[in-house]
Amino acid sequence: MAKLYDQITQLLDGSVDAAVVLDGDRRVLHYNPAYEGLTGLRGRQLAERVKAGARCYELFKLEICEKDCLGCKVKEVGRRLRVDEIHARRGDGEDLTFIVTAAPVELDGGERVVVETYRDVTADVRIQRRLKVALEHERRAKEDLEEKVRERTAELRAAQAQLVHQEKMSSLGRLVAGIAHELNNPINFVYGNVDFLGQYMEDLLRLVGLVDEADLPPELRERLEVLKKEVELDFLVDDWRKLLRSIRAGAERTADIVADLKSFARTGGTELGEADIVGGIDTTLNLIGPLLKNRVEVRRNIVPPIPRVLCNAGHVNQVFMNILTNAAQAITGTGWIEVSIETIDDGATIRVVISDSGPGIKPELMAKISDPFFTTKEVGEGTGLGLWICANIVRAHGGTITWGNRAEAGAEFVVTLPVRGPELREEAEAHA
Amino acid sequence: MPDVGGAPAHDPPARIVVVDDELYNRDLLVRTFARAGEVVAASDAAEATALLERWTVDVLVTDMALGRAQTGVELAREVRRRWPAVRIVVVTGFDDEPALVQARSDGLVDDVVPKPWQPGALRERVLALVVRPGPP
Q1: Is residue A280 located within the same domain as residue A384?
Q2: Is the pTM of this model over 0.90?
Q3: CATH number assigned to the domain comprising residue A371
Q4: A195 contact B CB<8A
Q5: Rg, chain B, Cα only
């Protein structure tokens, strides 16, 4: 036994890892200086215990000693084994982590022993854990950062789109204002002169009538009858009033379009003030009263408190006037309109839902109804600019307008407006 | 039957100056007041003030946009300063124009009639401003 055993023990004594040599019965045959530190026993005490035949687990117990004795396994399989991250309590009570190896050795005399080593990796494990945590932190931070970049990019895109839209709207507004201005004069003299044309024609026809009734010399009478035939006087008398009506209708319709264009050109207005939306809607309902009378029931569903909204009251009222008028006109016969007003976003936004019992919006028209000049009304009854203007007004206020059909038929319009007005809301978001 | 005006409502008849740089609207303004009193047309502010220097006028009816140097409001300011008795009516396509709103609240302008206007309605509003001393 002596030669190999001595070599092994010498080697172990010089090792920084704790190590023991065990016999087949797990008794400690030899231990190195590093092992002493693990047991918590003083040199002499340990030596006495070993001399008295102490087993390894009695001196220094690993968490695997009872169920999974490594030395026992090594004896069975006959080769070196290693287990990582084994916990054990050192003699002084501190919990440590080890890499444990066990190797079977056959000594010169044929005796089989097991050499076990214990490497303290507590510090490494701790560092590894910290590293892992740090890496995880870093990964999450990176993900957060990416998410933030995505969000900011989306916000920037939205802001850019809004800027482009605003710029588009303001140049469109200027163009439209210019057109309205230029059209105003010609409409005015067509519209204003129609009355005179009518009066003058009536006067002339009265004169013609008088002449016709008069007792004329036969020669003049004959010339008059020829001329009456030539100008088709009967037709003329019948037709000129129609002609005048169509000129007047044309002028009026053009004037309506110009009025709408003018109100569109104003949607970019900056005269903001705190407005009572509920009051505005009530006034609007009163104004369209004749459209509703005895026919359409109005249901109000208001969830107080409704704050005053920083907006251009005239424009916003125009939006609700338009939606409510459309709703009233959509209902043939009797029906109802429901107006619901509430705040959302913790009171930062006011939401108005206007639904009706009408036929609803045809699905194929859903995307078109806010296009300029699109109308489902009879020719001459609507300019087709109403909802387009509404959408622009709401957008200029930083709000939204959406529409759809209720499950039970009937249309539903939803308008949201930021309580603190368009710019302030953007600032608040930027600070959030 | 549309109202295109009949005999003068005032004695002596109302004297009206109409100002518009647009020929057809100027003609329409003249036509609107022709039977209601005496009406003379001017095509810009300079012509209007030249007329007022020679003629005693009850009402000045002016378009807001006069095409040249002075706007309707500027003309109103000058007329108010030099002939405070003359009533001033502005016709305009844009009755919410800030300069006009200001002029109105400053009392420079007695009435504002939006375009397109109806002759009967405009005539009524303009003649309502003409004051004649009541019977003794």
Answers
A1: yes
A2: no
A3: 3.30.565.10
A4: yes
A5: 14
